[in-house]
Amino acid sequence: xxxxxxxxVHVGRRGAGEPLLLIAGLSHHTAHWGDEFLDALARDxxxxxxxxxxxxxxxxxxxxFTLPELAGDVAGVLAVLQIDSAxxxxxxxxxxxxxxxxxxxxxxxxTLTLGCTLFGGERAVxxxxxxxxxxxxAVMSGDRERAVVNGFEVSLSEAHRADPxxxxxxxxxxxxxxxxxxxLLMQLEAIEAFDAADRLVSLDVPTLVIHGTEDHxxxxxxxxxxxEAIPGARLEILDGVGHLxxxxxxxxxxxxxxxxxxxxxxxxx
Length: 269
Hints:
It is a single chain. By secondary structure, the chain is an alpha/beta fold. The chain contains 11 helices and 9 strands. It has a single domain (2-125, 181-268), classed as Alpha/Beta hydrolase fold, catalytic domain (Rossmann fold).
């Protein structure tokens, strides 16, 4: 646990090398990355994970927040850890926070990897109404089992869902320190207010965008538009993969992040 602006933040560190900071998505915490993905990255980097406000082991959220404020939390974590800059990976909502971090604190970001995310605003492709309805009904039902089943169905590809063992693993992680409905609603409110579409052209950081074709939460065209909006960004499309690409294909996902970051590591300059 570390303290950032008077708020307790749960941070994890593993591996050795240049720092690689991971920013989790909606309702997720450190365990959602999965040990296979984290260990694969830790062979080349010091991997730093953090729980966003009100999630995992971090302190409860004490009121509404914006994504720029969450990006400020990330900057605060790096400051407390005395890390001048880091490679940054953000997924889903974490990808939006990572965009705000790179826009507001470009000196902190060595390379940027954005996974299964969007740039917000009116031009972003909205999640299908039936998906939103199913999520809302599951969450508001108060039935955690139903919410877990729904999360599994909308977050992962059909091929991955076919193995019952994958559901049990997903269930165990999801039920470990589940996010409260109030924090989830605050996260959704912050996402709704997010719009970086016209600002991404100013980014001057090596960027990789990763997106699966079977992403039902954030449609793949969003990833394509993010890559188009950032000068020089590279787009990697994962065919047949769902929203949690790093969960379905941890080794391949880690290899993509590794290749992108190490090509621009300080020692390679």
